[in-house]
Write a structure and sequence with these properties.
By secondary structure, the protein is an alpha+beta fold. It is built from six helices and seven strands. The strands form two sheets. A five-stranded mixed β-barrel has the order 1-4-5-7-6. Strand 2 and strand 3 form a beta hairpin.
């Protein structure tokens, strides 16, 4: 009976983790450069600047610069938010960037648990370019 209860508790716990996972799509970008991507109105011109197009233009070379790699990675979402990856997510992102054949437009799907402006990454995959 005790084994059965332990098994039931484990199953419930695992199911709870599966339900808690969020899926987010967006552009992989380093934290250091993420500020460039936020939409804003230029004080000089009054024009809208930044946004997804800035994040998409961030190249593989940019992502692999030592200062950018050191800052860590995250995903810039369609709703103009930056979600910072946890340490494991940073390692997964770095491996994905190094293995990627593409040179820019690092659109990704991230599965993980969002807490505030951070996501604990369970899986990370590069999406095909349309």
């Amino acid at each position: 009976m005790k084994r059965f209860l332990c098994l039931m508790m484990f199953t419930a716990l695992v199911s709870g983790f599966a339900l808690a996972a969020d899926t987010v799509k967006g552009i992989l970008i380093d934290e250091r450069s993420s500020g460039e991507a936020f939409l804003r109105i230029s004080g000089a011109t009054g024009q809208l600047e930044g946004g997804r197009i800035v994040a998409e233009a961030h190249t593989k070379e940019d992502l692999l610069k030592p200062e950018n790699e050191k800052s860590g990675y995250g995903v810039f979402t369609d709703d103009n938010k930056f979600l910072k990856f946890d340490a494991a997510g940073d390692r997964k992102a770095l491996a994905l960037i190094k293995e990627a054949k593409k040179l820019d437009d690092f659109e990704v799907e991230v599965v993980g648990e969002i807490k505030g402006d951070t996501i604990k990454v369970v899986s990370l995959k590069l999406l095909p370019t349309d």
